[in-house]
Amino acid sequence: MAQEVRGVIAPGKDEPVRIETIVVPDPGPGEAVVRVQACGVCHTDLHYKQGGISDDFPFLLGHEAAGVVESVGAGVTDVAPGDFVILNWRAVCGKCRACLRGRPWYCFDTHNAEQKMTLAATGQELSPALGIGAFAEKTLVAAGQCTKVDPAVAPQVAGLLGCGVMAGIGAALNTGQVGRGDTVAVIGCGGVGDAAIAGSYLAGAAKVIAVDIDDRKLETARTMGATHTVNSRETDPVEAIRELTGGFGADVVIEAVGRPETYRQAFYARDLAGTVVLVGVPTPEMKLELPLLDVFGRGGALKSSWYGDCLPSRDFPMLIDLHLQGRLDLGKFVTETIRLDEVETAFARMHSGDVLRSVVVL
Ligand SMILES: [Zn+2]
Ligand SMILES: [Zn+2]
């Protein structure tokens, strides 16, 4: 039977979010209902609320979540009721060209639940953020969006791997292919940049240079594994990174801001034939201008990293295992735990710069 639970709704462009009763249908074929235990507050949720992603209001926000599978629909064999899972927004199809070529992290046909959750009061259909909608006691997803991990991990820590932290770690490990002894610079030390630093540290980088305009963020970056810090409000980051790398530039520069000026810094702060990874998300009006001769002459690779080029079934369980073994401290990304009715205040705090992640615990 369909259930009624509480969820955080963005009712319209720039309107404050509020808690509403939502209707979660029983899982149909290929679907699962998950009892959400924790869900992080991400910038993307704020963008949905501001109307920056689409106009399909009302949105059911929340997408960095972990919880327990409550029920599954017909034909679901990979997860079962009682499984502890992280929700992902890359449920790969297994059939598209990318999947068939063995590159499922580029899947063009990732899927979500087919049935819609609705507002109990009006029957209006909800658009779940990134096809997840996990600021709710329960949510309906495609079973492929549930990735089983070791239940020994705390849910508020596990959920963060579902989006921002995976994007950052994956930018270093998967897209940047950071290896032992590499020099790495990370521009922008918010949650994603810090995760890129943690990923570079995990990969055995010899130097990890953190760049930001906020000294408090640089201090946090050190706890994530940065060996050097550069305040780019005071110092030219390109010069500083070159100086710290014997005059060469870094092997891999990860741009976690998503702006033309920081991209240009990343481009010139890498060694010849080095790699730039863009993981910061630009806005539609931004344009990049670079001398084409420099693009040619400096060689190397200019890459973008979307969701850290992750494959949830491969990366989530591995990273949770490394966390449980004490080799990757994902707990550092949780600044505070909050209640479901505190999401609006968490959005406000996100901009003050002293919160890495607020996590709703249910
Ligand atoms: Zn596919
Ligand atoms: Zn996110």
Automatic annotation (TrEMBL):
PROSITE patterns: ADH_ZINC (PS00059). GO terms for molecular function: oxidoreductase activity; zinc ion binding. Keywords: Metal-binding, Oxidoreductase, Zinc. SMART domains: PKS_ER. It holds the Pfam family ADH_zinc_N. Belongs to the zinc-containing alcohol dehydrogenase family. PANTHER family: NAD-DEPENDENT ALCOHOL DEHYDROGENASE, S-NITROSOMYCOTHIOL REDUCTASE MSCR. This is Oxidoreductase.
